[in-house]
Amino acid sequence: MGKDAELSLPGLPQRKKIEVIESEGKKKVLLREQPFMTWASEDESASRMAIVQLYELGFATQEELSDAFQVHIKSIYNYINAYKADGVRGLIDQPRGPKQEWKLVPSLKAEILRLLLLEGITTYEGIQKRLEEKGQKVSIESIRQVLIENGFVRERIEIDESKQGSLFEYLEKEDDWQLKLPFVWEEKPKTQINEIEKVKEAETEKKNNPDILGLPRMTSQRKDRSHYSPVERIHLDLLERGEYSTYAGGLLYLPLLQQYNFLPIIRKVIKTDEGNDYTLEQLCLTFFYYNIFGFSSIENFKTAYSEEFGLLIGKVNSPSIFTLRRFLEDIQRLNPGERLIEEFARWYLLSEIAEWGVVYIDEHFIPYYGKELISMGFFTTHNKPLKGSLHYFVTDRNFNPLLFLLRSSSEDIIPKIPEIIKKLRKIAREAGIKEEEVKNLTVIFDRGAYSGDLFRILDKEHKQDEKEKDEDTKVKFITWAKYADQWVNDIKEEKFNQSTKIEYEVQKPEEVKYFEDDKKKMSKYGKIRTVVIQSGRKKKRMAIYTNAKKEEVSCEEIIRLMCRRWGEENYIKTLKLNYLIDYSPGFVTEEIEEQPLVDNPEVVKLKQKKAELAAKIQKAKAEIGEKVIEAGEKLNGQELREKHKGLFVEAIGTDAEKLLIGQKIGELPEEIPFDEAHEGRRQVRFNYERKCFLDCIKVFTCAMDKKMCEILLNYHDREDVWPTLAMIVRRGGFVKLEGNKLYVRLRGFKNQIIDYAARHLCEDLNKMEPFTLDKFHFPLHYEVV
């Protein structure tokens, strides 16, 4: 019988085939109880060697070695492969950091720059010699590369007929063949220093003020490669070689971004640290294209093809989702939300994206289903109160974006309308609109803002209290009448003897009959101009209220403006479905120091109990009444009370209890702070800075899409222009730098109609002389191949 069999006999302790024993600072491997190898406990390399030898000699499997040496099986696998590749050397720990002398660590680069700037050594050999004295051996080529990367040397080669010349300009005599750097510490005249300082001040002023910062000019000469970092040189090499990008169609937007000052608008408001890997401009362009290509969230952006997306922003790769989130955290700290919204609105007016004169105002509820305790608002879609936020959108008469606000759902639209009007007039004055035109403003809103108090604030004829005296809130308003269903249907048919035709952008024209009523009065407001309309096959009637006088706005114009209000609803739906305006990049909460007042829950319970007692008393009285009717004249009052004593006692007792509850309710406050009502849990509010920044870009993206559609309408039917634009701008293509011009060649379309529209769109965009918005500023040329 073999030894292995003897070890497994009943009654004997079963021993492992391989055992590792440690004692007196040494480790020993026993193979079938016989010593196989011994080494110092701290020598990890010897332990790995023992593992490999046991496996190579066939004494143990990887699983057995993992169990015996208490090492993960994956590590066993790695040791065996390392031994097969490099022998014993593969099992020895390699020191961390640079493995070869030519590797330049940051500390060594800093030392080279210190010798140059502080010690004034201006020759390669001088720097090399000084480093050798400190025990650092560095080649002249490595020193030269460090100085080129940091902009101290221009990369240029001059070749003489007889011999290779110096790579740098000489500081001394031409016959001195010592390599020297192209700068010298010579004193410059004061006049030259003053001129340099003036130029620097002008450049600083331009950088900090986008109003005087013109768009970058295209240059016909390429800068040499020493002007760019190593990563930028890689990007240039990729462009020169030519790259295919799934997102190449996105570059079609660059002429519009250039024309409508997308980046200068943001740069004026947001000042971020330029020490990041990605500049503010590159991150803003990332978020713009993030909307163009329909990424649903920042987390979803990780599905983008990083290298191909990087071409859009002038980088080798797109930023990671960590970089985007870190950038949004910086935005939150800077708190630029309201200023950025107003700056975009000002530029919408300046660039004539939006017109002044007529504006539509509407609200959009964004429900929140999370666990945070925030205020509630009424969600009309579900017809019930929910936690959430409110968007207030303002568009011009053609439903182009003008302004938006993002607020808590507890803030009602009625007090917000005067705030929006004042903000609009402030922005219009900043945009240079004449004061006469600023005052001539017509505001259109839905019946959700129907309020006599609001109408008095907006009407210039009412100036009783302080709110009504504010001239900046006085406008011409138009809205639907509320609670008018009954009286409008009582108007005789023959009174609708006038009609007007309403033109829509997509929908077919509609003829509407109308009747004007000058005698209509509204509670809390007084006499108001009313236009009643009748439309459709069912002759549906609705009333429109306005404070505009007949000589200011005609009935036809009032009907046209009010009936076209659905255009703003469609605008909000477009933002919701195509640009995901409801998305929030995280919910950051803030404490509310003064908690809002809410109904006292104890008072609510007492009132409920009081109502139950009142119902009980009513029921008891009804039963007593029935008994009295049944008794008739058989029993007098005294006998009736004695016979039905229980009912009378119950009614009197219940009434007394109800009286006591009423007294208790009077002693308690009707409203108490939120935290007292919810056992110390405090209500919070959202910080909307991140969402405001993203929403500004989403609204701007929608405006740019509309501008692209206006160009495309010259070559395509209106009905399908939006899906056609989406197919064109999301088309992949090749991007290649030829000479000093960047060619964007989109793949052609099999559909001849779309292909025709795409080719002519490219031709029109080429006429706008586009160029890239990165630091290279390459001229662009679009074509479909």
From TrEMBL:
Q: Which SUPFAM superfamilies match?
A: Homeodomain-like
Q: A Pfam family matched by this chain, by name?
A: HTH_32
Which InterPro entries would you find in this protein's record? Homeodomain-like_sf, Transposase_29
Give the highest taxon in the source lineage. Answer: Bacteria
Q: What is this protein called?
A: Uncharacterized protein
Organism of derivation? Candidatus Desantisbacteria bacterium CG_4_10_14_0_8_um_filter_39_17
